[in-house]
Design a protein that fits this description.
The protein contains twelve helices and twelve strands. It has 318 residues and is of the alpha/beta class. The structure holds (2R)-2,3-dihydroxypropanoic acid. Residues 52-53, 76-78, 101, 287-288 line the site of (2R)-2,3-dihydroxypropanoic acid.
Length: 318
């Protein structure tokens, strides 16, 4: 009999078709986030689950007594919503979808970079409201990114790819925070072993941190004070790596020039105080949201399932 797979959210049609070729599949046509009870039933009834960032796969789910599930294939690279240690202890394999979403996420970091430095939200809002008084040599000015310092926090796949693009396409100077210098970089970049030093020196700070316990609130309230008032902050990783309340406070007091955020604490609840600010660009977690990329992510999740059920090497096993 074909293994039974439960898919927690809607997925691209090509991915659905591929899954149906090999598995007995149950879909969530309403696309509403599963409750804990529904997830528990999935654990009891499926051989494998396809999930994503909106599903909290906690220890109590993974240690469900009548658990049948053997593999959870996450569509997405970040897995902070899955208790990996509990998965190991309960013999559940977890896979993710790295690489295929790198360039799409870098595209969104680039959008945020240009949007915040050129006041894109503010000037468009002004025009749409019919308040544009005509061309001016001194109004609506942003700042150049060329020649400015981009500080990368989290020099993984996406951090590196954004640094490369910012350097090669936009002529930015690259600093990055790491415990040791990253080997084999194909572009010029300087390492800072001290995060505070990177925050002090950078004109734009971009967060690309893995979803790791150690990284929660790493950009804390006290640390944020190191950022120059003329600098900008971009976050395309996870909302909880930064003290969001402290960031809002800095933005309100203009102690930082602007922020471009694609991720938030407790998504989808973005505080009104943040939504009301004009020096921010806010996107609804769209880093990997292109048809092509989401299809590649889904296909990779299916490949991981197929490898597991065919007793082959599971490439993206965590
Ligand atoms: C990722 O891949 O981690 C995206 O943020 C969606 O989960």
């Amino acid at each position: 009999m074909r293994p039974k797979i439960i898919v927690t959210r809607n997925i691209p049609v090509e991915v659905e078709s591929k899954l149906k070729e090999y598995f007995q599949v149950s879909f969530n046509r309403e696309d509403k986030v599963f409750s804990k009870d529904t997830l528990r039933k999935a654990m009891e009834n499926a051989d494998g689950i396809v999930c994503t960032v909106t599903d909290n796969i906690t220890n109590d789910l993974l240690s469900t007594t009548n658990k049948k599930v053997k593999i959870i294939a996450n569509i997405g690279v970040g897995v902070d919503h899955i208790d990996l240690q509990s998965a190991r202890e309960n013999n559940v394999i977890i896979t993710n979808t790295p690489d295929v979403l790198t360039e799409a996420t870098v595209d969104v970091a680039t959008l945020l970079l240009l949007s915040v430095t050129r006041n894109a939200f503010l000037v468009e809002k002004m025009l749409r409201q019919g308040e544009w008084k005509g061309f001016s040599l001194t109004e609506n000015l942003g700042v150049d990114v060329r020649g400015k310092i981009l500080g990368i926090v989290g020099m993984g796949r996406i951090g590196k790819a954004f640094a490369k693009r910012a350097h090669e396409v936009f002529g930015m100077k690259i600093l990055y925070y790491n415990r040791s210098p990253v080997k084999d970089l194909t572009f010029e970049a300087s390492v800072r072993f001290d995060l505070d030093a990177l925050l002090e020196e950078s004109d734009v700070i971009s967060l690309h941190l893995s979803s790791d316990e150690r990284n929660k609130n790493i950009i804390s309230k006290s640390r944020m004070k190191k950022i120059k008032a003329s600098s900008f902050l971009i976050n395309t990783s996870r909302g909880d790596v930064i003290d969001q309340t402290a960031l809002i406070d800095l933005l309100e007091k203009k102690k930082i020039s602007g922020a471009g955020l694609d991720v938030f604490l407790n998504e989808p609840n973005v505080p009104l105080s943040l939504r009301q600010l004009s020096n921010v660009t806010l996107y609804p977690h769209i880093g990997s949201a292109t048809y092509e990329t989401r299809t590649k992510m889904g296909m990779l999740a299916v490949e991981n399932l197929m490898a597991f059920f065919n007793e082959k090497e599971v490439i993206n096993q965590l």
